[in-house]
Structure formats: C-alpha cells, structure tokens
C-alpha cells in the first residue's frame, strides 16, 4: 500500500512546533480543550473531518499531507 497509517499524528505536532505554537494556541483555534488536542497529536483520539479541514487551513497545507498521503506540504488552490 505504501501509506503510513499513523503519519498524521506526528505531522500535526511537527507543523505546530515548526511555528513555535503551543497546544493551547491550536486548541483555541479549533475551539477544543488543550487535552483533546493533545490526544489528537498522540493518536489517542480520532481527528474529525472538520478538524482536519481546519488544521489544513491553519497550516496552509492539504488534508492529504496531514493524513500522510503525500510528502508535499503545499496546499491545493482554494477557490
């Protein structure tokens, strides 16, 4: 298959840390608690579709990148 199933969890952490943002900052953007967001990064909680979309907008990347389907961080054009 060639796709790492759990690639998303370290990717969302890496994107956050690359910007020197705290979990509290991102959780505030997502309108969830810091603990819920921490569970997303740790893979202890499934990330809902709406949250994936919000993270892709926040980080200006594609959902495919977040899910580990591509190694390219660039976002698709948004119409």
Layout of SSEs?
Elements: H1 8-18, H2 23-30, H3 34-42, H4 49-58, H5 63-67
- What's the CATH superfamily, by name? lambda repressor-like DNA-binding domains
The CATH architecture term is: Orthogonal Bundle
| N-to-C order of helices and strands | HHHHH
Main sheet? Answer: none
CATH class: Mainly Alpha
Q: Which structural class do you get from the secondary structure elements?
A: mainly alpha
Characterization of this structure:
With 79 residues, the chain is mainly alpha-helical. It has one domain (8-67): Orthogonal Bundle (434 Repressor (Amino-terminal Domain)), CATH 1.10.260. It is built from 5 helices and no strands. The longest helix has 11 residues, at 8-18. The radius of gyration is 12 Å and the shape is globular.
Summarize the structure.
By secondary structure, the chain is mostly helical.
What are the main properties of this structure?
single chain, 79 residues, mainly alpha, 434 Repressor (Amino-terminal Domain), 5 helices, 0% strand, globular
């Amino acid at each position: 298959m060639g796709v790492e199933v759990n690639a998303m969890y370290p990717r969302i952490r890496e994107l956050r840390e690359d910007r020197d943002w705290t979990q509290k900052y991102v959780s505030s953007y997502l309108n969830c608690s810091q603990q819920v967001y921490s569970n997303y990064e740790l893979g202890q909680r499934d990330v809902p579709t709406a949250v994936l979309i919000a993270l892709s907008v926040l980080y200006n990347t594609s959902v495919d990148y977040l899910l580990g389907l591509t190694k390219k961080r660039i976002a698709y054009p948004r119409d």
